[in-house]
Write a structure and sequence with these properties.
The protein has five helices and no strands. The protein is an all-alpha fold. 72% of the residues lie in helices and 0% in strands. The radius of gyration is 13 Å and the shape is globular. Helix 2 runs antiparallel to helix 3 and helix 3 crosses helix 5.
């Protein structure tokens, strides 16, 4: 884990998902670890529209393995927070 990853986690705990997303992206760029990509994409999905998310998956040419991991994580979050949906950021309201 990198400092960028830890910073992304800190921002996500504060529900500042835009900032978390940026940190997870930096972590992925420096580590090139699929786990960092998963964190980035989960944060991305929480603040972007569904079509933007799908477009980003295509832009990044995300592997089926990473997509499966994303689906598992997202389903787990949906079970844990059934009334959840997209998180609101403190910056955006």
């Amino acid at each position: 884990m990198s400092v960028w990853h830890n910073l992304g986690c800190a921002y996500s705990y504060l529900f500042q998902m835009e900032k978390a997303m940026e940190c997870f992206w930096e972590a992925f760029l420096t580590q090139s670890d699929p786990k960092e990509l998963v964190c980035y994409l989960l944060a991305y999905r929480s603040v972007k529209k569904p079509q933007e998310y799908e477009n980003r998956l295509k832009e990044l040419n995300v592997s089926d393995e990473v997509k499966d991991t994303l689906k598992r994580h997202w389903m787990s979050l949906r079970r844990k927070y059934p009334k959840g949906g997209q998180h609101k950021t403190r910056e955006g309201g």
